[in-house]
Design a protein that fits this description.
single chain; alpha+beta; Aminopeptidase; 2 domains; 11 helices
Length: 377
């Protein structure tokens, strides 16, 4: 690669300079930067920044890649860095990596720089660009999708985590000839970030929900109807909360919290699992804390989620299952507009190596329209 300054997408990509030192120190001392770049020196000093500018970045250029400062075209001030790393010449492949300074975040800088550098790399002979990020780094995954990088999967234990362990990374890639983006998503964001009918509100499951979710999913009757029927531990719950948005962006599942709109308190959870994209079928499941049962919240939550799924996604059919003994859950589904379709013997694994039966319910869009058009009795 040459060291050409790239002016595109409203950003300037230029080689790093010694005058960037103070801004590099400030940015690389930021807790969020250090969270997702765990091998950065701590504390990050002026000498670390000078080494990176004069030696580390230079090594990337010698290896066929490069490191550019992301600069504001109006002021030329450093807004972050972006580079082509781990070049594999025989594959015409490189890995895109970036960070954005705290003072430049939430302005589309990373997306713009990634689009600009991708075009520059393809024009100089690269055929495939990869972008790897932690499952917890939702902002970076959004950048990848917005810049036209398609999600390819999770690489287990790919990178050191900075504390002696290994961490998984989610892999995105863009080929020369792929559209610039954004990549179409199977499960879009909720409009305004939530769904509500004035009584219940559905919002995405997020970090910070660990205590609530642990309490909910360790209720004995919830454990008994879970697959597998095993109470999750706190580490599992923490990972689920931390990575829930990554699953949403991947289009695999949408995990939501059922909130009492009047009080703002979490009362249960509801999930949508996109099992069959080729047929447009997804599954839902839900659970409520005991003190919030009997108030009609699950029915409202199911209807809200179904309305969003049918209106905003390619989902054409929703399915749900209950145990034959769970009359309450069956009533929830029937009130929401689901119809019973079958009885599956020994379908699900249960505790102690047993198998249990499953009653299948399903809904299509016309069922929801018909149900919501009738007054509740």
């Amino acid at each position: 690669m040459d060291r050409t300054t790239v002016e595109d997408q409203g950003v300037r990509l230029r080689p790093l300079r010694r005058s960037d030192t103070a801004d590099v120190v400030a940015a690389c001392s930021d807790p969020l930067t250090q969270r997702f770049l765990p091998l950065l020196p701590r504390p990050y000093t002026e000498s670390d920044a000078i080494w990176w500018i004069e030696e580390g970045a230079e090594a990337e250029w010698r290896q066929g890649g490069g490191v550019w400062a992301i600069a504001d075209p109006a002021t030329d001030r450093l807004a972050g860095t972006i580079g082509l790393h781990r070049v594999v010449r025989e594959r015409a492949q490189a890995e895109v990596g970036y960070w954005v300074s705290p003072w430049a975040r939430n302005r589309g800088v990373a997306r713009a720089a990634t689009v600009a550098l991708s075009a520059h790399a393809f024009a100089h002979g690269f055929a495939r660009l990869e972008l790897l990020t932690e499952l917890e780094n939702i902002a970076s995954q959004r950048v990848a999708l917005a810049a036209g990088f398609q999600r390819e999967g999770v690489r287990r234990g790919l990178a050191p985590d900075g504390v002696g362990g290994r961490t998984d990374l989610v892999a995105f890639a863009r080929l020369d000839g792929d559209p610039a983006g954004p990549v179409a998503r199977w499960l879009p964001d909720l409009p305004g970030g939530e769904l509500s009918d004035g009584v219940v509100t559905l919002r995405p499951l997020l970090p910070g929900d660990e205590d609530f979710l642990y309490t909910l999913l360790n209720q004995p009757d919830v454990v008994a109807t879970s697959v597998p029927a095993v109470a999750p531990d706190r580490r599992e719950i923490a990972l689920r909360c931390a990575r829930s948005q990554a699953h949403w962006l991947a289009g695999d599942r949408a995990d939501l919290v059922i909130v009492d709109t009047a009080t703002g308190r979490p009362t249960g959870d509801i999930g949508l699992y996109y099992q069959e994209r080729n047929t447009g079928q997804a599954m839902i499941g839900y659970a409520m804390l005991p003190e919030w049962r009997g108030r009609g919240f699950p029915t409202r939550a199911v209807q809200l989620l179904a309305l969003w799924a049918f209106a905003e996604t390619s989902i054409a059919r929703l399915v749900a299952g209950t145990s034959p003994q769970n009359a309450g859950s069956q009533r929830v589904l029937e009130k929401a507009g689901f119809q019973r379709e079958g009885y599956h013997r020994s379908r699900l694994p249960a505790a102690n190596g047993r198998r249990i039966d499953d009653v299948l319910f399903a809904m299509v869009a016309s069922d929801l329209i018909s149900r919501t058009a009738r007054p509740e009795r």
